[in-house]
Amino acid sequence: MEPQSPSDRAKLRNTESPRLRRAWGTRTRRRLYTLLYLALVLVGAVMLIWSDLVRAVAVPVLAGFVAGFVVLGLLVTQLNRATRMSLPHRLLDERQRAERDAAHRFSQQTMGVLLLTVLVAVAVLTINEPLDVEFPSALALPLLWVLAMVHISLPACYLAWTQPDEPADEEDEGGDDFPGQNRSGPAQP
User: Over the chain, what is the mean pLDDT?
Assistant: First the structure.
């Protein structure tokens, strides 16, 4: 895991910064941000449906959608950094590589199931529909939105949800420099 180039060193320094590790070190915090990401994706889908159904408010709703998209981009970037998904494979140790591989396997299988489910649902709706019923076109764009966002972020969300808490830094634990003595002075009887 020794960085060879200046760009590798910069990537490792940004991802392994103590500030980032403290901010994202707990599983609870990573899970909350994962749930926030999911909520923002669903809000984006609702906004797309609403802008298609209510044409009078389409422009303000789409402007809000673009702003939400920027926030989602920042959030998924932070999730990738927190779970080390932004690092190249060569900078990870064996445990991190195994975790990343498991996240990619889970994501591949989940996306396969989701895409197959959507394919079957759309096929059933369009092939067996009565003549007076049509597939709601207002759902096409939000469905593609949700599938794209899940595909982009599922490995990082999986790792954020399943990784254990980061070990606390020695400074945070009040680690002793010498046995029997803490930072405030000698040990009290």
Answer: 81
- State the Cα–Cα distance between residues 61 and 141, nearest whole angstrom: 14
Q: Is the pTM of this model over 0.70?
A: yes
* Cα–Cα dist 63/56, whole Å: 13
Measured between alpha carbons, how far apart are the two ends of the chain, in Å? 44
Q: What angle do CA 126, 129, 133 make, to 5 degrees?
A: 100
- Within its chain, how far is the Cα of 37 from the centroid? 7
Kindly give, in sequence order, each residue whose CB lies less than 8 Å from that of residue 31, ignoring residues fewer than 6 positions away.
160, 161
pLDDT band, very low/low/confident/very high, at 56 (cuts 50, 70, 90): confident
Token pair of 3 as six digits = 């960085």
Residue whose structure tokens are 């009040």: 174
CA–CA separation, 145 and 62 (whole Å): 13
Listed by start position, the domains of the chain span: 16-162
Q: Which two tokens stand for residue 30?
A: 């990573």
Cβ neighbours around 81 below 10 Å, total: 20
Q: Are 159 and 20 in contact (CB under 8 A)?
A: no
